[in-house]
Automatic annotation (TrEMBL):
<dbReference type="GO" id="GO:0016491">
    <property type="term" value="F:oxidoreductase activity"/>
</dbReference>
<dbReference type="InterPro" id="IPR057326">
    <property type="entry name" value="KR_dom"/>
</dbReference>
<keyword id="KW-0560">Oxidoreductase</keyword>
<dbReference type="InterPro" id="IPR002347">
    <property type="entry name" value="SDR_fam"/>
</dbReference>
<protein>
    <recommendedName>
        <fullName>Ketoreductase domain-containing protein</fullName>
    </recommendedName>
</protein>
<dbReference type="Pfam" id="PF00106">
    <property type="entry name" value="adh_short"/>
</dbReference>
<dbReference type="InterPro" id="IPR036291">
    <property type="entry name" value="NAD(P)-bd_dom_sf"/>
</dbReference>
<comment type="similarity">
    <text>Belongs to the short-chain dehydrogenases/reductases (SDR) family.</text>
</comment>
<feature type="domain" description="Ketoreductase">
    <location>
        <begin position="6"/>
        <end position="190"/>
    </location>
</feature>
<dbReference type="GO" id="GO:0016020">
    <property type="term" value="C:membrane"/>
</dbReference>
<dbReference type="InterPro" id="IPR020904">
    <property type="entry name" value="Sc_DH/Rdtase_CS"/>
</dbReference>
């Protein structure tokens, strides 16, 4: 896919992976629609992209709210008329032992990691259909394939997201819209039970993480060369083995 002039929506653009994906897409000439809730972070990202010659718009949205997502869809339609690429990079992780998980914890995990992807993908579908060739790409996890203790809400949400995306990939396989789940290993960002500083210390001790800048460039390169499969896995060395032993 030639990315010059493409309209790319990045949901969760204020997060670590979302920010780097936005930069990588803009670098290749895509007009990036930055979606999230942290206005200061998104505006700073927009300025950074524009200072480097890229194009970006900011839209504040609650992706778990149907009315908010409908407003986002109308705004994109008015400005661009179509969507070529949708990245679902939004997500949270709730890591608690089973007796300590509240029902509110459970619902929040599912709403952000699964419901928002359903809502955004479905609402933007008419605009994706107007593209000559479109991608819907969601950030999955190795924990959507390998369950680990103490993370049941997060694992359940990623298993559900994986099922949603793989089902849609089959449903739309004869169309020009490609649905992709990126099954990722641990990334060197502040996301997860460990802080960025703690991850850096673990990395010094030999733990392997994916660098978010490298990861974003790698994903965008695959997108550019049309080498993304319905499930594309990107892991650090030994990630799956460590996950199966509950050492992630």
């Amino acid at each position: 896919m030639e990315l010059q002039g493409k309209i790319a929506v990045v949901a969760g653009a204020s997060g670590g992976i979302g920010r780097e994906l936005s930069r990588a897409l803009a670098k290749q000439g895509a007009h990036v629609f930055l979606v999230g809730r942290r206005e200061e972070v998104l505006e700073a990202l927009k300025r950074d992209i524009e200072e480097k010659g890229g194009k970006a718009n900011v839209y504040l949205a609650d992706l778990a709210n149907e009315e908010s997502v409908s407003g986002l869809t109308k705004s994109i339609e008015q400005k661009f008329g179509r969507v070529d690429i949708l990245f679902n990079a939004q997500g949270i992780g709730i890591y608690k032992k089973f007796p300590d998980i509240t029902f509110e914890d459970w619902k929040r995990q599912m709403v952000v990691n699964v419901d928002s992807v359903f809502l955004l993908s479905q609402k933007l579908l008419p605009l994706l259909e107007k593209s000559d060739k479109a991608y819907v790409i969601s950030m999955g996890s190795g924990m959507g394939k390998v369950a680990v203790p103490g993370r049941s809400p997060y694992c359940a949400s990623k298993f559900a997201l994986r099922g949603l995306m793989l089902s849609l990939a089959k449903e739309y396989r004869k169309t020009h819209i490609r649905f992709v789940i990126l099954t990722l290993g641990s990334v060197l960002t502040a996301f997860g039970p460990l802080s960025l500083e703690e991850k850096i210390e673990k990395q010094k001790e030999g733990k392997r993480y994916l660098d978010p800048v490298w990861l974003a460039e790698h994903i965008v390169t695959k997108l550019k060369h049309d080498t993304l499969f319905p499930e594309t896995s990107i892991y650090p060395k030994h990630y799956l083995e460590e996950s199966r032993r509950g050492k992630t």
